[in-house]
């Protein structure tokens, strides 16, 4: 019940349980305990079920900390820490179970634009924890950003993943993803995500000793290259997470050139020269 609570349907008790997961997993991370699922997943889940209501967050925080404080006073701090770490592990296992259960059902789901849906991308992120690969997928499929006048659910998800990754997580994302996201529109309104990407973009510019105009030209060339690759391959899934049908031509129709693409969702693509 905890991990399957849907937005607008979770009651106060559900929200508090999810929030305790987030706090416990954060505690485990500070203790350098390796969990399969990051604490940001639980906190993101809490934000989804409460619609970012600050009153619900404050109340959940008050309730959980009151319970923990009572346990510390009655059983001692070592016992409290053992309890918190056991909660963190149980919650991580529950999110893994949810991800595995839902993955097969949604990870091949496409949206109206023909790319993987936000639900499919969220499922992949939850199952693997590889948020940077979601960014790679979107900048490959939308090298010039998202059309703000068309459905933008996956772009909005990208903004959520930026916030979940945080400043330290973004350092592991590819240059192509960070430069593209910083220079093009991928979500309509998410100030925290925009600030995080901008800060990481400027950090990389300093490391590469680039000016703003040089960085923008770099991003434009990279976007042009991705668009050209997609046109040449005639296979939108190349370099992506999703599944797709091969663009292999009919045998005997001409000279065939095959290219093998490595990485998640990669494969062998063949087309006439």
From TrEMBL:
<protein>
    <submittedName>
        <fullName>Uncharacterized protein</fullName>
    </submittedName>
</protein>
<feature type="compositionally biased region" description="Low complexity">
    <location>
        <begin position="230"/>
        <end position="257"/>
    </location>
</feature>
<feature type="region of interest" description="Disordered">
    <location>
        <begin position="221"/>
        <end position="257"/>
    </location>
</feature>
């Amino acid at each position: 019940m905890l991990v399957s609570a849907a937005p607008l349907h979770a009651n106060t008790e559900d929200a508090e349980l999810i929030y305790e997961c987030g706090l416990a997993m954060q505690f485990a991370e500070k203790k350098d305990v390796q969990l399969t699922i990051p604490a940001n997943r639980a906190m993101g889940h809490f934000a989804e079920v409460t619609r970012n209501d600050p009153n619900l967050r404050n109340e959940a925080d008050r309730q959980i900390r009151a319970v923990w404080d009572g346990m510390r006073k009655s059983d001692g701090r070592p016992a409290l820490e053992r309890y918190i770490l056991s909660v963190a592990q149980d919650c991580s296992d529950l999110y893994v179970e949810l991800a595995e259960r839902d993955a097969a059902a949604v990870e091949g789901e496409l949206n109206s634009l023909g790319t993987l849906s936000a639900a499919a991308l969220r499922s992949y992120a939850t199952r693997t924890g590889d948020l940077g690969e979601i960014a790679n997928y979107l900048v490959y499929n939308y090298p010039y950003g998202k059309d703000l006048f068309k459905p933008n659910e996956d772009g909005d998800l990208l903004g959520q993943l930026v916030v979940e990754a945080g400043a330290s997580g973004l350092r592991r994302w590819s240059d192509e993803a960070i430069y593209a996201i910083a220079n093009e529109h991928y979500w309509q309104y998410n100030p925290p995500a925009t600030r995080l990407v901008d800060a990481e973009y400027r950090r990389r510019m300093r490391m590469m000793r680039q000016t703003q105009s040089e960085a923008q030209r770099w991003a434009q060339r990279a976007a042009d290259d991705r668009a050209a690759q997609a046109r040449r391959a005639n296979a939108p899934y190349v370099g992506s997470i999703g599944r797709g049908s091969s663009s292999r031509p009919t045998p005997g129709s001409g000279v065939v050139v095959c290219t093998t693409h490595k990485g998640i969702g990669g494969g062998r693509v063949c087309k006439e020269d």
